[in-house]
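Researcher: I've got a protein sequence and the SMILES for nicotinamide-adenine-dinucleotide. Could you write out the 3D structure of the bound complex as structure tokens? I'd like something to compare against our soaking experiments later this week.
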Amino acid sequence: MSHSITTIGVCGGGGTMGAGIAIVAARAGFKTISYDRSPDSLASARKQTSQFFDKSVERGKMKPELRDEALARLTITSDIAELGACDLVIEAVFEELGVKHALLKQLDEVCPDHTIYASNTSTLSITEIASGSKRPHNVVGMHFCLPAQLMKLVEMSAGILTSPETFKTAWALTEQLGQIPVETRDDPGFILNALLVPFNNDAIRAVEAGVAEAGDIDKAIKVGLGYKMGPLELIDLIGLDTQIRLCEAFYGVTLDPRASAPPLLRRMVAAGLTGRKSGRGFFNYGSNAMFGA
Ligand SMILES: NC(=O)c1ccc[n+]([C@@H]2O[C@H](COP(=O)([O-])OP(=O)(O)OC[C@H]3O[C@@H](n4cnc5c(N)ncnc54)[C@H](O)[C@@H]3O)[C@@H](O)[C@H]2O)c1
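Model: Sure. Here is the predicted complex with nicotinamide-adenine-dinucleotide in place.
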């Protein structure tokens, strides 16, 4: 039987994606419980979330009373038992199968039978993730884009054992969140990363080969193809360290040489140039703020 979704949980709520997804859920009117095992990450997410809503008010995109209501709907906790109240939990913990399996095992203990588990994985298989739960029929892929609080796309995929009911409910919920769902097969990288990871690496290799300066490569892509952001600017936003992790996960399942991390990317990360969050990547930034961009 289908349950209506009133309370949404986010796991990894202190992380880059989790913090943004919690904003999306609370902003759309859902009671939202954001859980992370790291209290420090949660404290920083709480601060950045308030700053994001304040900026939305300053820019006239949100009324002050709606900001206050959204913040009041958001609970931030490092106690996983609080997720027992959730009808749907979106996990955005580290991109490691073992970590996701361990989390699902814990969720099976605290969540009721009807709770849907949505994974925000970028590269892992939904079917494999689902095998970590006693309820694989409740597991579905819901891949948000960075920054989740600004980007509308959610790639949705069903694993082999995902029930049609779970997929349908998660799809409807995605629309209620004000997002735009697109269906994709449970395939490495889904649509976006399958195309983007090799493309971004090609841009890094073009810098490495001296084809052009980083700024000119991005300018050519933006002016010539009408993209809002160049690939190197985008990698700075994603984080160069995250790009390496994406490459490693993606290369691991596809063995596509274009998906392997370029040596320049590894050298830059070794030097601490991880992109906007460190103030420098392919470009220099006056501020390292990632939220409210
Ligand atoms: N960064 C991106 O551009 C991006 C985009 C789309 C999807 N994703 C996916 O989202 C997920 C998270 O990525 P991220 O970049 O936000 O990572 P992140 O490292 O910024 O955050 C992960 C968070 O999960 C927490 N965590 C780890 N294990 C946990 C556990 N067992 N229980 C509770 N909390 C736990 C960590 O403390 C951390 O705060 C990954 O699956 C990734 O593939 C990332």
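Model: Residues 11-12, 14-18, 36-38, 41, 92-95, 99, 102-103, 120-122, 143-144, 146, 238, 242 surround nicotinamide-adenine-dinucleotide (CB under 6 Å). The two ends are 41 Å apart (CA to CA).
Researcher: Great, I'll pass this along to the crystallography team.
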